[in-house]
Structure formats: structure tokens, C-alpha cells
Write a structure and sequence with these properties.
By secondary structure, this protein is mostly helical. It has one domain: Multidrug-efflux Transporter Regulator, Chain: A, Domain 2 (Orthogonal Bundle). A three-stranded antiparallel sheet has the order 1-3-2. The N terminus is likely disordered. The structure holds a DNA duplex. It holds the Pfam family MerR_1. This is MerR family transcriptional regulator.
Length: 123
DNA sequence: ATTCTAACA
DNA sequence: TGTTAGCA
């Protein structure tokens, strides 16, 4: 990792991508199996990724952390692949976002009711 | 040392 | 998703 050779040049292998995206190599291989991530291979068979892949994985991670499942991230991934700077700029993404919002609202209502009954129990 | 695939005391 | 095995 010399000062010169370490400059965001070529590509990175699965280990580095995982580290920079805050996930595991295992998860990245799984995303690939699910068709969410594309992998180019080097002569030795190792997967090679670039900055674009890093952006994509970070997008996926961000969505997962907000409560979406892997399938929910698909439209966002495709959206970015189609050139959009934001994965939320496509109809498919908007639909997923809207559905999640409704789920959250329902959840809030449930929690409020639970809270109310607990307050009663306390007298 | 790192990645690969496949599979699970 | 983690972990591990046996290779390259």
C-alpha cells in the first residue's frame, strides 16, 4: 500500500469492496447471485470491482439499514444502472418507497395503541 | 495472504 | 448471513 500505487486506480477485489461498503464478502457474493451486482473476473478467477460497484453496494446497504429487504433494492439498483444519479428517480423505486411508508405508518398506529394500553395499565 | 465454490456440528 | 473446508 505505497503512496503511489494506492490511488483509487484499477479495481478492487471482494475483500476491499466489502470493507469500504461496510459489509462482508459473503454478502457481496450473495447479491451477485441475486443479480444485484455484476462481477468481472480477472485471469485467476477473482472478482474485480470498481468505484461504480462501490456506489451500488453502498446504495444497497443504505436501503437495507432503513429496513428494506434485498428484493426492495432491485429497482434502485436498476435505476442507477440506467444512468440516474439517484436510485430513487425511477417509478419502480418510488413504488417501493411508497409501500414502505405505508407500512411504517401502520406500524406507528400499532405502537400508539400498544402504548395507550400500557399507560392505562399504569393507571 | 486472499479469493473461490459449496455446504452446514 | 456466518463459518468452514479444500483449492488455486
Amino acid at each position: 500500500m505505497t503512496l503511489v500505487a494506492r490511488f483509487t486506480v484499477g479495481g478492487m477485489r471482494i475483500g476491499e469492496l466489502a470493507e469500504q461498503a461496510g459489509t462482508s464478502a459473503r454478502a457481496l457474493r450473495y447479491y451477485e447471485q441475486q443479480g444485484l451486482l455484476s462481477a468481472r473476473r480477472t485471469s485467476n478467477g477473482y472478482r474485480e470491482y470498481d468505484e461504480e460497484d462501490l456506489r451500488l453496494v453502498r446504495e444497497i446497504r443504505a436501503l437495507l439499514e432503513i429496513g428494506f429487504n434485498l428484493e426492495d433494492t432491485r429497482p434502485f439498483v436498476e435505476c442507477i444502472r440506467e444512468g440516474h444519479s439517484s436510485g430513487a428517480e425511477c417509478p419502480g423505486s418510488v413504488e417501493v418507497l411508497t409501500r414502505r411508508l405505508a407500512e411504517i405508518d401502520d406500524y406507528i398506529v400499532r405502537l400508539r395503541r400498544i402504548r395507550a394500553t400500557i399507560v392505562k395499565e399504569l393507571g
